[in-house]
Structures are given as structure tokens and as C-alpha cells.
Amino acid sequence: MRIVTLPRQQITAFASSGVAMDFLPRITDAERAHVQIAHLAAGGTLGEHPAGMRQVFAVLSGHGEVSADGGSRRPISAGQAAFWEPGEVHQTWASSDMVVVIVETAGRLDPDELFVEVRAVPATCEGPATATRGGPAAD
User: Fold this and answer.
1) Backbone conformation region of residue 40, classed left if phi is above 0, alpha if psi is from -120 to 50, else beta
2) ∠66-41-26 over CA atoms, to 5°?
3) pLDDT tens digit string along 93-126?
4) How far apart are CA 93 and CA 14, in angstroms?
């Protein structure tokens, strides 16, 4: 067994602020995959940038908002994940302190029926987002 300290760096690329990233070791025997742990301070943003690979943004604690390709901001909170495709321009805003795991892969994401899609509530309706069975959120 080996125990190591995770290297942490402040992220300022893409006009990001209030973001510290813990880096996990690269996975070298896979086609391509990266896993990081991001710490977003309340009020921080992970600035707008294109996804270099397929990306899963899984919120472990806290809540905030995400957007893709200039679309509206959508709420996201602990227990939820956003999926972005390669080239999809996206951004994250932290409403509270957030801890997230970011997985980037050149492989295919294959969420099964256990993943429940969170649908956006139309602007004319009030109330929480609704969940339906299906794949990942499209935006």
C-alpha cells in the first residue's frame, strides 16, 4: 500500500476564480482518462471553456449552477452530475462551497437505467427540477 498527498493547485485559466483542484494520478493503461477533485469556493466560477473530452462533473457536496453552449444556467447539487461532450462549451458557478469529482475520458459514457435524468423546469413554472428515468441530461 502507498499513501500519497494529492497535489492541489489554484485554477485561474478561463477566468476561473475561487477554484482549487486536487489532481489524482494519470491513468496510463487506458485509452485516455483523467480524474480530478475540484474545490469551488462560494461565489467562485470555473470559467467558460470547451470540454477536451467527454466529461462527468459529479457534485459531492454543495450546490451551484452549470451551463453549456450559451444556454441558461441550470441548478446542480450534491448527488447530481452534469455530462458534457467533447467541444461542448460549458461553465460552472458555485452558490455554496462545492466539492466535485471531474472525470474526463476519450471513452464512451454509458449510464444505465439507474441514472435518473433531471429535467429543467420551464421558466413559467415554479418548483424544483423534476427527475425522469433515462440517460444523462442533454444540455
Assistant:
1) beta
2) 75
3) 999 999 999 989 887 777 777 778 888 765 443 4
4) 13
